Amino acid sequence: MDDSSGLTIPVLGRVSAGTGALAMDHIEAHYGFRDFALGTDFLLSVKGDSMEGDGILEGDLVQVRRQPTAADGEIVVAMVEDEGVVKRLRRIGKAYQLESANPRYPPITRAFQVVGKVIGLVRRYNR
């Protein structure tokens, strides 16, 4: 296999999160980190629990593609005053707001600027 990115890790198959077994006797594919990083302009470390409902946890690194706009319902990084936040962009009528995935946090309706779209995340379990 030709891989100019340097590092690949084999994908051995699927594993059950319930009961089941893991078969590691054949390689299903190889996962190249160059492919993983493709389209990622930068990573940001997540602080807080406002996006837990969307599976984004404190300590995760979100992969961000820099772009000034996003579609309704996409998860974005935005600047609100001098603070960067990760939220879901939601269109309400002709206006937009930023929504958390945790009901304890109200929507952000004041002025904001989209910095980029979240396209993935990295999570480590040995924090």
Description:
There is one protein chain. With 127 residues, this protein is mainly beta. It folds into two domains: 1-38, no CATH class; 40-122, Umud Fragment, subunit A (Ribbon), CATH 2.10.109. It has one helix at 33-37, and strands spanning 8-11, 29-32, 42-45, 61-66, 75-80, 83-92, 95-99, 113-122. The strands form two sheets. The chain has a six-stranded antiparallel β-sheet, with no helix packed on it. It has a two-stranded antiparallel sheet with strand order 1-2. A hairpin with a 2-residue loop joins strand 5 and strand 6 (83-92). The two termini are 33 Å apart.
Q: What is shown here, in short?
A:
The protein is built from one helix and eight strands, in the order ββαββββββ.
Major sheet details = 6 strands, antiparallel
Beta content: 35-45%
The main sheet orders its strands as: 3-4-8-5-6-7
As residue ranges, the low-confidence spans are none
Quick tags:
single chain; 127 residues; mainly beta; Umud Fragment, subunit A; 2 domains; six-stranded antiparallel β-sheet; two-stranded antiparallel ribbon; 1 helix; 39% strand
